[in-house]
Amino acid sequence: MRLGVRAALVDGVEVPGDVVVADGRILEVGTAPAGAGGLAVPGFLDLHINGVVGVDFLSTDLEGYRAAGAALAATGVTGYLPTFITSPLGDYEGALAVAAAAAAELDGAGARVLGVHLEGPYLSPAWPGAHDPEQLRRPDVEEALGLCDLGPVRMMTLAPEREGGLDLVSALTARGIVVSCGHTDADTATANAAFDRGARAITHIYNAHRRWTARDPGVAGAALVRPGVTVQAIVDHVHLAPEAAYAAFLAAGDRFSLVTDAMEAAGQGDGTYRLGRREVEVHGARAELEDGLLAGSVLTLDAAVRNLAGCGASTADAVWAATGAPARLLGDPELGILRVGGRANVTVLDDDLRVVRTLVDGAEQFAATA
């Protein structure tokens, strides 16, 4: 099957010509003649998303995942980590079982579930954000590993400064689970200690963690200058001013990774919604608790790519932040790439960086109508 594109983005370079897909793999790149238009790029990856189009991943069923997968494919996403906000421990077992079933669905389900991101419950009471402070827990290695045994946990956000936090970082990384520092009051020394123990990311930089000072830049400052640490950011121009987002991108370079932190209101419009067990009001681009605290977003990943490009990033760098950077954090060499022999997880963008087509393992999951 030929995609009919004018070029493909391969290792950050636009290669003129069409792309040929066969048996779920990229067979050819740069095939003549080129198609009429469109740029083929690696499929987008969202490692922090609580929900979309009325689906809250913590409480949905398999049909909800199918609806979410289709909606995400329409935004160029080919793989994602459904993210569970801090909740009573009893809420996780059923949610993880449903996520495991969704991850096992390989045909016709839109974007692919790549595992689960547990954002909590081992977070700082000083920086709960939209997480229910009453459900935050002291880090407990045995308890946390027990949660991970219940389903396909691939990533966990935690506060390393809490008693037992650094030991939990070590235990999770020994299991191959990605650890991200977030909702944390960690100072710079503690952040670096967590990175020394194997933590590899910061969750939504400049949101819900100790504020930066010149003498103690905290987890944000440590992450921005630390080789190998992925800097995740919500580039919706609500969580971060464009200048702050672009400055973080310039500092982090190819370690900068876009996430949405979207909740079920994404794609739904204004109204009252749920984020886990909490009620959220959505007005325009803002999702807030009743006290005005931001509670996730209504961002889509294709919009985040356009926003980053609008800040000044090149198309190649903006796409990398939604593909190569998150793939490297997950440690999966088959994701975030577009090259001959690779899996055909492909997003096709028009000249305005809008999604016109999405393939997951070579199967078309979205095609824009004229």
Structural overview:
The chain is an alpha/beta fold. The chain contains ten helices and 22 strands. It has helices at 62-73, 90-104, 141-149, 165-174, 188-197, 218-225, 242-252, 301-311, 315-320, 324-330; strands at 7-10, 13-16, 18-22, 25-31, 39-42, 44-49, 51-52, 55-56, 77-85, 112-113, 116-119, 153-158, 178-181, 201-202, 230-233, 256-258, 271-275, 278-283, 286-288, 346-349, 355-360, 363-367. The strands form five sheets. Strands 6, 9, 10, 11, 12, 13, 14, 15 and 16 form a nine-stranded parallel sheet that branches. Strand 17 (271-275) and strand 18 (278-283) form a beta hairpin. Helix 5 crosses helix 6 (218-225). The protein is globular and about 60 Å long. The model has no long low-confidence stretch (mean pLDDT 96).
Layout of helices and strands:
Layout: E1 7-10, E2 13-16, E3 18-22, E4 25-31, E5 39-42, E6 44-49, E7 51-52, E8 55-56, H1 62-73, E9 77-85, H2 90-104, E10 112-113, E11 116-119, H3 141-149, E12 153-158, H4 165-174, E13 178-181, H5 188-197, E14 201-202, H6 218-225, E15 230-233, H7 242-252, E16 256-258, E17 271-275, E18 278-283, E19 286-288, H8 301-311, H9 315-320, H10 324-330, E20 346-349, E21 355-360, E22 363-367
Q: In brief, what are we looking at here?
A:
With 370 residues, the chain is of the alpha/beta class.
Salient structural properties:
nine-stranded parallel β-sheet; 370 residues; six-stranded mixed β-sheet; 10 helices; alpha/beta
